[in-house]
Amino acid sequence: MTLSFELLNLRPKFMRFDIWPFVIGYIALYFWWSTLDEEAPMDTNPLMEKINKATFYGAEIYNDEVYYESMENIYARLTFIGLVFFHSLVYMSSYWSVQMKSKIRYFSGGNKLSLNNVQNYKYCKVLFIKQQKSYCDIVTIQSDQQNKYWIYFMENKYFYDEAKELFIRLKPNVKFNLENLERQEKTEEYEKNSLLIPMKKFNEVLKEQLMEPFSFFQIFSVSLWLLDESRIYALFTLSMLFFTSCTVVIQRMKTMLTLRQMKLNPQLITVYRKNQWTKISSELLVPGDIVILQTAEQIKPAVKDNNNNNDDEQFLREQIPFSKHLPPKLFQVETMNVDSYKSVPCDILLLNGQVVVNESMLTGESVPQVKEGINKHQNEHLDIKNKHKSNVIFCGTEIIQLQGNTQYPSYINNDQNQSHCLGLVLRTGFDTAKGKLIKTVFYNNENANVKQTDGLFIVVVLLIFALSASAYVLMNGLQEESRNKNKLFIRCILIVTTVVPPELPMILSIAVNQSLALLQLRKIFCTEPFRIPLAGKVEVLAFDKTGTLTNDTLLFSGIVDNCNKRCVQSKSDCSLNCQQILAGCHQLIYADNKLQGDPIELLFFQQNNQWSYQTQQKYAQNRDLGLTIYQKQVFSFKSDLKRMSTVVQVDQKGQRHYRLLVKGAPEALQQLFLQIPDEYEYCYQHYSNLGYRVLCLADREIQEFENQEREELEQNLVFQGFLICESPLKTDTQQWIKKFKTSYFQPIIITGDNLLTAIAVGKQLLLHDNKKTYILDYQNNNYVLEEHGTKNTQVLNNLEKEIKQFEGMLCISSSIMEKLENSNQLKLIIHFCIFARMSPKQKETIIIQFKKQGKGVLMCGDGTNDVGALKKADVGIALVTNQGEEQKEDEEEEERIANLSFTEQLKQVKKQQEELRKKMNEAKGDKEKMKNIANQHMQQQTAGLFDMGPSYKFGDACIAAPFTSKMSTSIRCVHTILMQGICTLVTTIQTYKIMALQSVLNAYSLSALHMQSLKMSETQMTLMGILGAAYYFCYSSAKPQKTLSKIKPSFSIFEFSFFISLTLQIILHIWSMHYAIHHIAMPNMTQIEKEIKNDTEFKPTFLNTTVFLLQLLQQSCIFLFNHPGEPHMQKIDVNSKFFKSLFIPLILCIVSAFNYSEMLNAYLELTFPSSEEPSVQLTILCLFVTITNWLIEKGTKTLKYKKWYGFI
């Protein structure tokens, strides 16, 4: 991440580069124009003949004399048009690019930020670059009376540092040494602790939308059509552009209002300031404050009425013109954030006691998390991402339980010996975990279009073609003295504008927004819309094992306390030491009237009448034995250590002693044993091979407990046994993995579990077609492949070469991966299927390596230990469970929704939405009832004509991944996202092909007409425009196939089959148009028709009739036969509106070519010669074009896929 600054000052208005050079240009042009020769009179003729010639030549009549414009005058007028266009381009570039804006409108003060320079300049250009993303803005430099300077950029405040000569963000220090914890300095210069998104006005957002390059280009084209007297078509295009822009603006504003509801309403909180406790609003908290924590039920709101729903609706109504005449539902913004004041208002470091929090709203973790007070005496730096994550309570989470104590910081007076949980405020506002999530959603949502690299390449190629056609028409037109030069220039420019169809701005956003809406109907929420097309390019599917492929709930199989006998015993029959470890080494809590926590820790207490656990006093008890175990110190499970431990006090029949209880991965604890039992490795590997999850249980006696360090305690352990449990696959995991495998995807497993357990799961899922499994190991300074289940090993002399050639399921552990990394051979991991005992950092590394090798990667996990990998993947999916929901019912509902058409889905959502609003209106005034209704309908999404964009609600997105699935914990969501990504990608690529064909044909047909001073009528142009817009909309609404194809889709337009199909179709349509013009139309035109010029009013000729009918047919053929269809999308349904809208104009063209209906001819302004032969020729040509276009597209698709896919 890099930040760069440049000081700026506004130029005086007449010194701007978009003003003074053009003022000089206009003045020079004026003087040049004034020095040109006057118009010369034409030859003397009768007055009517003069008038006809004047009309024909584009001349003028004064005092019965006809004057024509000299070429110099025409060139001057053309120069004026070019100067105005270039002036507009320069002016608009300051809106398109911040870099251009800084050059055009500002004086630069350079990058040196000395105090003198900062004082002399009022603005600063800030450029933020992170990975492949960048954001640039020009901000105002603000100051106060104490000569402090600061700027605001991306919701953050940056102060000027005179010593460093830089603007430094006032960033909370979250990496301080824990020994200095009680000496943390506090500053009051932080902004208010609020997550409120700034709201733009309607006219500002509309101005931004209309000033985008494509919109500007269309407005310019419309102005040219108006000059060519095509007013109806121009107004239709302008109306469509304005309507589309307003739709997008309204949706953006509704989305911003919804994002504003992700903020946390302020609460009353007790803070220690000026040596006393005082209650303040949570908005006034700053990093360094000490606060008293409360449970969600104890918290009181700082403001009585937190429901600002009516204010949001009123704001929308005030901003949108003619809002009184628009439907009320357009302005309704759902309030699902009624009790957000009960959430933790900032990121807090727990100083003492123990807190149980619900992090599901933030991380997607459904199991309540236990947070422990930080050890203040450690000589190490705070690490809130990894080591000390269990000591931090993050903003947006809810506190369920508290257990305080009297261990206050030394500088806080606690004479009354009060017992509270205290916390140190670490981060506030947008610096918090939740604040970063909101910023991610907001800044990514503002750019929800597909990356347009392919599109820009197509536009450049088409521009070259259009310029060539325009130049040809211009050169030929200038050679004819009789041509109206003004019309000639306008029409030549119009040929160039055909490069970009008017519908393009709408097309580029519809594909992505439609996919977002469909994903939301399936309860899959996306915070980074640009990743949807990336899902279509995925080749590798990476899955976490536990909780993703297998169930979260575990089945207790038994305990093995003797490695030699390997006899599996029940909970009551195993040794007392094993029972003590399972009863005392855990972090279970009591919430919602039941014991909750890690499923593997719950196993021992389930259906166990002998042992019970009290969470308040933190002790386990066996009354039959008179045994009580008190937890004194808990060392939480660490992914890098692969173990957890507790220090307990054991009381039994009056005797008391301390023990350290440890459980963890067998290979991790093996290094800590005082003595390793015989058959230790063979025993745990035996059960791992069978697919069981194996945990090692160990302990040791402690003479005295005086808050020793973890490393000091966890040594010289005594083995007590293995906990054997089964983690069965989810019911549908096998069927989905089979579907992925039968397609072109490569599924892999990345897990922190044991290698042998992961192999057993891999074999169940048949991850590799070859049934043999090999484990990479390192023995005697050589890499070897060991065949699983046998003792066969093979030494790899040339690791890189032999690994690539090896057939079978390759597996690797974390220790061997470290060796590969140290020897710079990490790129070989792309040949492996199973990665076991991987730390969160190693999971990230695996994803990065696959991406470096050019593989698109999808990562699916539970959203906790997989966060890094989920964010590094092209597509990261966090599976989030909603407590209280039945998975089976959810899956049935998802299946039902998936089978509905898009229109039916919209109708269903609208119906549900009306029911929700009705219930909310009935409950108006009853906040508790409104809260219950809101919770019941949390997942309902508003979709409709104005809701085609992304929509987020409180709790839908999580910080774990760009995609969050809340339908169920099934990996079905992977299939849904892949299908939608492929649909978006394929639709976009085919849209570029259609755009290219349309642009080439428009340019050629316009050139052919303009060569003869002809044009199409406004009726004809408007009809083609309406049909084109309808085609594009229906086309982009196509649905994906219900199953994944075995064939990869095209990832880009740079593919042989794409260019072959495009080239052949261009040749067909240009040849047919050329043939129709030169061999059918022109030879059969009457002499009167040949003298008709459409420079003023339109008069039908057989030439423009031929061009119109053939171009309308070609347009229908292009959309009909270039529909992606199978194998990646559903083929066109012959009963669908889309097929009918394409097929009817196709038939209409062929029927019209017969000259069948005089009424139809009059309506479409068509004319035909008296002879039937030209009509027959035109009809035959139309049939030939239709059949040949079908053969070309079906032929290239068949050659590409080696399979025939249906008739259409």
UniProtKB/TrEMBL annotation:
<dbReference type="InterPro" id="IPR001757">
    <property type="entry name" value="P_typ_ATPase"/>
</dbReference>
<dbReference type="GO" id="GO:0005524">
    <property type="term" value="F:ATP binding"/>
</dbReference>
<feature type="transmembrane region" description="Helical">
    <location>
        <begin position="1176"/>
        <end position="1192"/>
    </location>
</feature>
<dbReference type="InterPro" id="IPR044492">
    <property type="entry name" value="P_typ_ATPase_HD_dom"/>
</dbReference>
<feature type="transmembrane region" description="Helical">
    <location>
        <begin position="1138"/>
        <end position="1156"/>
    </location>
</feature>
<feature type="domain" description="P-type ATPase A">
    <location>
        <begin position="338"/>
        <end position="440"/>
    </location>
</feature>
<dbReference type="GO" id="GO:0019829">
    <property type="term" value="F:ATPase-coupled monoatomic cation transmembrane transporter activity"/>
</dbReference>
<dbReference type="GO" id="GO:0046872">
    <property type="term" value="F:metal ion binding"/>
</dbReference>
<dbReference type="GO" id="GO:0016887">
    <property type="term" value="F:ATP hydrolysis activity"/>
</dbReference>
<keyword id="KW-0460">Magnesium</keyword>
<keyword id="KW-1133">Transmembrane helix</keyword>
<feature type="coiled-coil region">
    <location>
        <begin position="899"/>
        <end position="940"/>
    </location>
</feature>
<feature type="transmembrane region" description="Helical">
    <location>
        <begin position="233"/>
        <end position="253"/>
    </location>
</feature>
<feature type="transmembrane region" description="Helical">
    <location>
        <begin position="488"/>
        <end position="512"/>
    </location>
</feature>
<dbReference type="InterPro" id="IPR059000">
    <property type="entry name" value="ATPase_P-type_domA"/>
</dbReference>
<dbReference type="GO" id="GO:0006874">
    <property type="term" value="P:intracellular calcium ion homeostasis"/>
</dbReference>
<feature type="transmembrane region" description="Helical">
    <location>
        <begin position="456"/>
        <end position="476"/>
    </location>
</feature>
<dbReference type="GO" id="GO:0005789">
    <property type="term" value="C:endoplasmic reticulum membrane"/>
</dbReference>
<keyword id="KW-1278">Translocase</keyword>
<dbReference type="InterPro" id="IPR006544">
    <property type="entry name" value="P-type_TPase_V"/>
</dbReference>
<keyword id="KW-0547">Nucleotide-binding</keyword>
<dbReference type="InterPro" id="IPR018303">
    <property type="entry name" value="ATPase_P-typ_P_site"/>
</dbReference>
<feature type="transmembrane region" description="Helical">
    <location>
        <begin position="1058"/>
        <end position="1077"/>
    </location>
</feature>
<keyword id="KW-0479">Metal-binding</keyword>
<keyword id="KW-0067">ATP-binding</keyword>
<dbReference type="Pfam" id="PF00122">
    <property type="entry name" value="E1-E2_ATPase"/>
</dbReference>
<protein>
    <recommendedName>
        <fullName>P-type ATPase A domain-containing protein</fullName>
    </recommendedName>
</protein>
<dbReference type="Pfam" id="PF13246">
    <property type="entry name" value="Cation_ATPase"/>
</dbReference>
<keyword id="KW-0472">Membrane</keyword>
<feature type="transmembrane region" description="Helical">
    <location>
        <begin position="1021"/>
        <end position="1038"/>
    </location>
</feature>
<feature type="transmembrane region" description="Helical">
    <location>
        <begin position="74"/>
        <end position="98"/>
    </location>
</feature>
<feature type="transmembrane region" description="Helical">
    <location>
        <begin position="14"/>
        <end position="33"/>
    </location>
</feature>
<dbReference type="GO" id="GO:0015662">
    <property type="term" value="F:P-type ion transporter activity"/>
</dbReference>
<keyword id="KW-0812">Transmembrane</keyword>
<keyword id="KW-0175">Coiled coil</keyword>
